[in-house]
Specification:
Blueprint lengths: L7 H6 L6 E14 L5 E10 L5 E9 L5 H11 L2 H5 L5 H4 L3 E9 L9 E8 L28
Antiparallel strand pairs: 1-2, 1-4, 2-3, 4-5
């Protein structure tokens, strides 16, 4: 058998989704503080491709100067702009929210870890109206995180 040998990083990178725009749904959100002591919400986000496959991404909305754009854009995408404009977003209000996001490929500069998908930004609805909050789109399909106990 002949083949092209690959490193662990090359194998892991082969499963990445292409950078671009995708639908998302927030499946969990928890308030926390960053290592620097800033207010933060850790989001568990399901991202869906055109075939309906789902990938789970962890994203962080952090109250910093550099993270301000992402918090506002998330609020616009998810229909939470009135709460954002009052200066307070509750994690529990984020669960079940959906919209569009910009998926990126994050590269580890040290080369120690494989590349991974991440959310670079959240996108304003094209018609200016954010989708309604929904129940989860689907159960975890094969190949995604599924931590349900079968009994």
């Amino acid at each position: 058998m002949r083949f092209a040998p690959k490193t662990e990083n090359e194998i892991a990178s082969a499963g990445l989704w292409a950078a671009g725009e995708y639908d998302f749904e927030v499946t969990d959100a928890a308030e926390d503080q960053s290592k620097a002591g800033n207010d933060m919400v850790k989001l568990t986000v399901s991202v869906f491709n055109q075939e309906g496959q789902r990938r789970t991404i962890f994203d962080y909305l952090v109250d910093t100067e550099g993270g301000a754009y992402k918090i506002r854009h998330f609020a616009e995408a998810a229909g939470l702009l009135p709460q954002y404009e009052r200066g307070e977003l509750a994690a529990e209000d984020m669960i079940g929210r959906n919209g569009r996001c910009k998926l990126t490929i994050q590269k580890d500069k040290s080369g120690q870890y494989p590349d991974k998908n991440g959310i670079g930004d959240y996108l304003k609805p094209k018609d200016g109206v954010a989708p309604a909050r929904t129940a989860s789109r689907s159960k975890a399909p094969a190949g995604d995180i599924d931590d349900e106990i079968p009994f």
